[in-house]
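ok trying this again, last paste got cut off
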Amino acid sequence: MIRLHRTQGGPGSGLLAAIEPSPLNRSVGGLRRDHPEMSAHTVLVAWQRRVLLGLVGLATLGAAVAPAGTAIALIAVFTAAYLFVMGYNALLLRATLRNPRVLCVGDEEAFAVADRDLPRYTVMIAAYHEAAVIARTLRSVAALDYPRDRLEVKLLLEADDTETIAAALAAQPGPEVEIVRVPVASPRTKPKALNYGLALSAGELVTVYDAEDMPEPLQLRRAAVALARADESVACLQAQLYYHNQDQNLLTRLFAAEYASWFATALPAMAELGAPLPLGGTSMHVRRDALERIGGWDPHNVTEDADLGIRLHRMGFRTEVLGSVTLEEANSDPVNWVKQRSRWYKGYIQTWLVHMREPRRVWRELGGRGVAGLAAVVAGTPLLSLLNPLFWLLTAVWLVGGTAVRELYPAWLYYPAVLSLVLGNFLALYRIAVSVRSSGHPELLSAVLLWPAYWVWMSVAAVRAVAQLTISPWFWEKTVHGLEHLAGAG
């Protein structure tokens, strides 16, 4: 029988509390109660607020007293951020060219384990307003090649989402599927629903799928075998995600190129560098005991997947990439895409702020490489998207002969800035091109030529994310699925 490594010191290892919280209370407040320093319930802790206000006040005072000097100082700081991210991208490219490890389990090896020896598996699908695609979701679950007596599927639907509940019942799911009505409670987020489902499940291994997902049928078997043979420090496997509608329009091709780069090359390269992996929101396969030990998902973080990957790494666990693909639906509508990307960027900022509350502790737990990865990917991604329009404007003014802009770039700053502009952009485009080719999708190379246009949309999303973070940090903006069917019908 496959035996899974057990971690020590989980929530159930001590004396039980006199009164066990209800599943709903645990799903909403468990992490905040047990690990308050890891919860995004508070956006900024006291010292972060003081530092932020101090920096804003200092910049405002400097702009009033010495505007040119203040502008040069800010440009220097931002240029340093660009150079840092450029350097990290160079490391990722180097690791990519060395073919970083992906855990692969062949068909024969996957079937070599008898059904009775496979671990019990929990599959959770959190869906909201997905009546149009929920039948397809259940067909994808039915296609999973895993013994039904070792499988439990929790279809997590909001209690007031009567349309999706009715559509799920009409699809006549198999006996392994339980429709769980998640009580209406704030925050109304996917991670809250996942915590609720986790409290009602019993699988040794846990995975999450989205409503539009079509996982490879052998994915659960491959993950179970890979985790059984992996080192006990490996608590999570991230399957690779790709899109089944990449050819729908230009936006879906750009999105597919980005996913090919992220899941096929960037995540394996980050694992090779020893950095924490910001997980995808789906198809991550986690040991239950490790998941419980770190407190489950953060219901107040709108990129609960990225946060989960960071917390796993901080607690001493590792994540590897699994050689199995789940197909998703690429966002084909620009407005819908911006809403989705705004949520991702907002969650990345939340994750960065949470994990930098105790910088010394984070340095001890992640090490220099881990902190560098956290800064370059989790903080750098939304930050540079936010800064890009400013530097595009400065470059445009410079090119048309703006002398005022040229005065902002003394020689000691000019050359690093040009290096960042030329080499940084080249590296970003080259890494995307290498990734789509090495991942087996050379047909996407033409889309890479239009990547700068994609950056514009990223900047729009970043501005929107910062605005929303200040107004409604826990608001989960719904991504509309099933658009490819609407396009086909039209």
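PB: full thing came through this time. The CA atoms of residues 251 and 334 lie 7 Å apart.
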